[in-house]
């Protein structure tokens, strides 16, 4: 490996961390500027999950790119961040175009984002077929149909803003509770047949861990979306017990 195209400072969600990176005396940027001058790094970027933090990062004029969540559920960047990136000539890398796996209709998710031609989407890929589907979307019409718009609005209403994006900043849990998976359970119930989550051997084990929560609240202090994680874990556990009881009759 001769060089890295882009090096990103990852998960910078507060001013204190940004100041440490940019400190003129012993900031991390000094090391990476040397690497850039030596041709080892071509561009320097930064990633974040906090709107106030990423806007401050853009305004420094130092970073060439920012990476931030953007999809038709988490759509605030359209008005708050993209215009700022254009003003400061900062590239926008779009993480979580599928809302961390919460959106299943790739066509609806991508066609919403196609209206912003100056972003670079980086969806998570698990299968070759997913790559083929995305390529076909780029090659086809970028216009949303009436049915797709209606589906988008329906999903917006269903999900709201109170859902886990699976960034996993809340982990690790000192009780080894799989927080992100537990928080995703209500979406399993909405989108999957009962046999999937009632007979899947991972789910009961996950629920057994849920009751080990000691209510320390550490996970909530680390969540960039300020979710009431402890409450949502209880809701997932209670929903599982309800579904299990209903389908055992």
Poorly predicted segments:
none
- Write the CATH architecture name of the largest domain: Alpha-Beta Barrel
Largest sheet: 5 strands, parallel
CATH superfamily of the largest domain: NADP-dependent oxidoreductase domain
- Tally of alpha and pi helices: 13
- Within the largest sheet, what's the order of strands? 1-2-3-4-5
Query: Using only CA atoms, what is the Rg?
Result: 20 Å
Large-scale geometry: globular
Q: Say what oligomer this is.
A: single chain
Q: Tell me, what is the CATH class of the largest domain?
A: Alpha Beta
Instruction: Count the domains.
Output: 2
**Helix and strand sequence:** EHHEHEHHEHEHHHHHHH
CATH topology description of the largest domain: TIM Barrel
Specify the helix fraction band.
40-55%
Strand content: 5-15%
Distance between the termini: 60 Å
Averaged pLDDT: 92
Determine the structural class based on helices, strands and strand pairing.
alpha/beta
Total strands: 5
List the helices and strands and how they pair.
Layout: E1 4-9, H1 15-22, H2 28-37, E2 41-47, H3 51-59, E3 65-69, H4 77-80, H5 82-88, E4 91-95, H6 106-113, E5 119-122, H7 128-139, H8 146-159, H9 179-191, H10 194-199, H11 202-210, H12 218-222, H13 229-247
Parallel strand pairs: 1-2, 2-3, 3-4, 4-5
What does the model show?
50% of the residues lie in helices and 11% in strands. It is an alpha/beta fold and 249 residues long. It folds into two domains: 156 residues, TIM Barrel (Alpha-Beta Barrel), CATH 3.20.20; 69 residues, no CATH class. The longest helix has 19 residues. The termini are far apart. The mean pLDDT is 92.
